[in-house]
Design brief:
Elements (H helix, E strand, L loop, with lengths): L16 H25 L7 E5 L5 H9 L5 E3 L2 H17 L2 E3 L8 H20 L10 E3 L1 E3 L8 H4 L5 E5 L2 H14 L3 E6 L16 H9 L4 E7 L8 H20 L10 E3 L6 H6 L4 E4 L1 H4 L6
Parallel strand pairs: 1-2, 1-10, 2-5, 3-4, 5-6, 6-7, 7-8, 8-9
């Protein structure tokens, strides 16, 4: 158990109006920033998707972000996914969204989402409400963006659609084996340590192409693209160089003509402080937490 989980109820689904407005304003500022960066870089509007990084945020805070326009969320820790997923699945369902694996028929989350919608409809009927119950749920991707230990794989597979932090073949093989056993195909991004910083995880850039090809061959996995964390330095040129190299690696994989690499299109790069640089270098997913929710009260 992570220490801050002893002090904050992450399953809490209530939020006061002031906190809700803070989050709504944060989402709108970030979406506006993405649109501006797309325009400045000459990219098509809507080519970059916002992933809300929800580490330490409770269900109520996350749903406020979704209500404000977030259409993808990402968690860092399997323990938080376990605690939050049931409430998030229910709350998303009554708003017309199937969170993560709730979009796939036969999963526990899909059954929970269906039950939430049915209960909402029954409650409306009993109260005489004319509120509409969604006829079909729109998928809302749920990513794991933090490191995954092999003994935590079963905590995340029932819920997430994509694991962004795969950085070695052994981990990929273990995820693939568990996914196949569940009858699932899990999206993965190969994490590459473009900055070369020892504090960061990720495979070596020189190994990325070969490793991506090996991972893409595994049954139970779907290689969706590449991920990196920008260099933590004040020199924009250094940060930009890492993002540009990841894009070049992705482009080379697509140009290889290898069928299993044909869907390796995503570039998850850019966070609150370097989002605009990442977008200018071709990012398709930016992972933003602080600019939406404010500074974390816990680490």
């Amino acid at each position: 158990m992570v220490a801050y989980m002893d002090h904050k109820d992450l399953a809490n689904d209530t939020i006061d109006d002031a906190r809700r407005q803070e989050i709504v304003d944060g989402v709108h500022r970030v979406l506006d920033g993405i649109a501006a960066a797309e325009s400045d870089a000459g990219h098509a509007a809507g080519s970059v998707r916002l992933l809300a990084a929800t580490k330490t945020r409770d269900v109520g805070e996350i749903m406020a972000a979704i209500d404000a326009g977030v259409r993808m969320i990402g968690e860092n820790r399997p323990q938080e996914i376990e605690v939050k997923a049931p409430g998030l699945v229910r709350q998303c369902a009554v708003r017309g969204f199937a969170l993560g694996e709730a979009a796939n028929d036969g999963t526990d989350d899909a059954q929970a989402a269906a039950a939430a919608v049915a209960n909402a409809g029954a409650a409306d009927a009993a109260s005489g409400s004319t509120a509409s119950v969604p006829a079909a749920l729109a998928p809302l991707p749920f990513h794991l963006i933090g490191q995954l230990q092999s003994n935590k794989i079963n905590k995340v597979l029932p819920h997430v659609t994509t694991i962004e932090s795969v950085d070695n073949l052994a981990l990929a093989q273990k995820i693939a084996k568990r996914a196949e056993a569940r009858g699932l195909t899990v999206g993965v991004l190969l994490e590459v340590n473009e900055s070369g910083e020892e504090s960061k995880s990720g495979c070596e850039p020189a190994e990325a192409a070969d490793l991506a090809a090996q991972i893409a061959e595994l049954k139970g996995l779907h290689l969706e693209g590449l991920m990196t964390i920008g260099a933590h330095v004040p020199d924009e040129a250094v940060i930009r160089r890492g993002f540009a190299h990841l894009r070049e690696t992705r482009d080379a994989l697509l140009a290889s003509g290898v069928p299993v690499l044909a869907d390796c299109r995503e570039l998850s790069m850019g966070m609150t402080h370097d989002m605009a640089i990442a977008i200018s270098e071709g990012s398709t997913i930016v992972r933003v937490g602080t600019a939406i929710f404010g500074e974390r009260a816990f680490i």
